[in-house]
Amino acid sequence: MPENIVLIGFMGCGKSTVGRELQQRLGYPLVDMDTEIEKLAGKPITRIFAEDGEPAFREMETALLREISATGGRHIVSTGGGVIGRPENRELLRGLGFVVWLHAPPAVILERTSRNRDRPLLHDDDPAAKIASLLGEREPLYRETSHLRIDTAGLDSTELATGILESARYHFCQRGQ
């Protein structure tokens, strides 16, 4: 198996849930980047965005990725949805291990995120349009960064984890690792 399995994708695609499932199966520590940043900052992401701005949050993501990269060992890494916005982050993510893009259609994302007030980028008059716009910007970056794309709509975390593990084993067997 690879040293790390890294989960990327838009908010509401299941990164945290699938990360916990993979952690249970492999016994690797789970690094949920949003949770770690909240601990380090001493405040929730919504307050980081409101008080410090999105650029400060993005810098925290990059710093955390650098730290994870330097740490070594085996981890499950669940990222924030916008982590792929910086070229340095995309390089760091690919260097960490097997990168899986969890994907869902915009309608599914809207349904999954509509009851959650902790999504600062969706505090908008038209969240559906905001989702479509952000997906349009980010999908090419997710594609560039990932080794595997999985559509999460209609699958539970057990099925997703099974697919990820089978694909990761195949990927690294093919590469001779």
Give a verbal description of the structure:
- The chain has 177 residues and is an alpha/beta fold.
- The chain has a single domain (4-174), classed as P-loop containing nucleotide triphosphate hydrolases (Rossmann fold).
- It is 58% helix and 12% strand.
- It has 8 helices and 5 strands.
- It has helices at 15-26, 33-41, 45-52, 54-71, 87-96, 106-113, 127-145, 157-174, and strands at 4-8, 30-32, 75-78, 98-103, 148-151.
- Strands 2-3-1-4-5 form a 5-stranded parallel β-sheet, with helices on both faces.
- Helix 1 crosses helix 8, helix 3 crosses helix 4 (54-71) and helix 6 (106-113) crosses helix 7.
- The longest helix is centred in the last third of the chain and has 19 residues, at 127-145.
- It is globular and about 45 Å long.
Short characterization:
This protein has 8 helices and 5 strands, in the order βαβαααβαβααβα. The chain has about 180 residues and is an alpha/beta fold.
CATH homologous superfamily designation: P-loop containing nucleotide triphosphate hydrolases
Q: What count of structural domains?
A: 1
What general form does the structure show? globular
Query: What structural class do helix, strand and pairing data support?
Result: alpha/beta
User: Whole-number average pLDDT?
Assistant: 89
Structural Rg: 16 Å
Main attributes?
globular; five-stranded parallel sheet; Rossmann fold; 177 residues; alpha/beta
Secondary-structure blueprint:
Elements: E1 4-8, H1 15-26, E2 30-32, H2 33-41, H3 45-52, H4 54-71, E3 75-78, H5 87-96, E4 98-103, H6 106-113, H7 127-145, E5 148-151, H8 157-174
Parallel strand pairs: 1-3, 1-4, 2-3, 4-5
Helix pairs in contact: 1-8, 2-4, 3-4, 4-5, 6-7
